[in-house]
Backbone:
């Protein structure tokens, strides 16, 4: 079996999608399966030059023009990159987004099945509409475009039931699907060193959606309540980092809130903390939670998107509606025995639902079914 993995993201992108397909390529190779990856950086040089000219013209206008450029650029770039591989003996295409998958499918003369992993939090149209100001007419055209793309794909892997439910209106009526949560293969790590300070971690792209500002507000509230025995580690980088660092300085919390920047293996830092808190306003199946489970760090999380499929209402969901109530919830987990109970209950989820080797075997089995049903 030979698999062509396609993605519209660059390999350097700070995204869980990159984490997914990088680990997948390595795991498939370990199983003796041939793997080739094409991504945005593989667009032929001449066409990339043309796209750069269009980018300078269209992206600054914003809105629909920004979206049009991206759809055109990524689709055509991946199409031309895949054309160069027409003579390769691939068994199937495993796409990380529907644009790249259909582009490769058409470039390879429609002779290979496409397996699509749906990494989006809601669906592509909803996410683009949230990011840009789009008219109803343009949104309808965008929906039609994505319905066309999805109509070319029969085999779907969803990393949460939530993602499937939210995108059903764009998907074909006849399809094969699997729910395979994100998993990681992390060796056992040493427990955190004893400390008088409760170490709280958070991993993610530092922006409004990941909502690390909430942890800064909680730190301020803890400080107001004269709680000093804590440290918050913000692991990641992003457009809000400089603003949040300045805010932390203004609030005189620099000795309590630390910024660690982007890490190649963020779980190594998470493993040295006592509690992981996930603050995102929407997420599908976040790797940061899966990694925290893997290193046995107990997790608290806002119950958004697909997160409740990993973090149960009784063990780990945050229910507060404001900073004060959320701070009180977090404060209750300064109790070591309560954290131990949380970690134990979450280890059951990790063992039963997030087994890396079983998930890989199920994916390979799905590959074989897709290849046979072409």
Residues:
């Amino acid at each position: 079996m030979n698999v062509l993995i396609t993605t519209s993201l660059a390999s350097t992108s700070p995204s869980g999608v990159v984490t997914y397909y990088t680990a997948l390529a390595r795991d498939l190779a370990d199983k003796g399966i041939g793997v080739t990856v094409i991504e945005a950086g593989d667009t032929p040089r001449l066409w990339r030059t043309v796209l750069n000219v269009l980018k300078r013209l269209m992206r600054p206008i914003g809105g629909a023009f920004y979206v049009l450029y991206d759809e055109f650029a990524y689709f055509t770039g991946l199409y031309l990159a895949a054309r160069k591989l027409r003579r390769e003996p691939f068994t199937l295409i495993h796409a990380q987004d529907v644009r790249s998958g259909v582009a490769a499918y058409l470039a390879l003369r429609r002779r290979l099945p496409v397996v699509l992993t749906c990494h989006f939090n809601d669906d592509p149209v909803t996410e683009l509409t949230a990011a840009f100001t789009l008219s109803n007419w343009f949104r309808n055209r965008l929906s039609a475009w994505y319905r066309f793309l999805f109509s070319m794909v029969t085999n779907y892997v969803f990393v949460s039931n939530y993602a499937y439910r939210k995108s059903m209106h764009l998907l074909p009526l006849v399809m094969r699907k699997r729910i395979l949560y994100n998993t990681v293969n992390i060796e056992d790590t040493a427990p955190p060193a004893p400390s008088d300070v409760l170490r709280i971690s958070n991993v993610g792209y530092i922006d409004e959606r990941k909502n690390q500002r909430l942890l800064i507000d909680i730190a301020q509230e803890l400080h107001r309540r004269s709680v000093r025995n804590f440290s918050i580690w913000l692991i990641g980088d992003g457009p809000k980092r400089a603003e949040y660092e300045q805010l932390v300085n203004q609030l005189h919390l620099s000795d309590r809130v630390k910024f660690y920047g982007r890490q190649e293996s963020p779980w190594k830092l998470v493993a040295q903390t006592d509690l992981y808190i996930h603050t995102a306003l929407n997420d599908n199946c976040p790797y940061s939670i899966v990694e925290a489970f893997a290193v046995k760090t107990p997790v608290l999380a806002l119950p958004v998107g697909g997160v409740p499929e990993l973090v149960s209402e009784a063990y780990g969901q945050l229910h507060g509606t404001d900073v004060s109530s959320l701070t009180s919830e977090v404060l209750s987990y300064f109790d070591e025995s309560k954290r131990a109970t949380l970690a134990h209950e979450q280890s059951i989820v990790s063992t039963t639902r997030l087994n890396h080797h079983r998930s890989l075997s199920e994916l390979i089995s799905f590959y074989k079914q897709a290849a046979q049903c072409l």
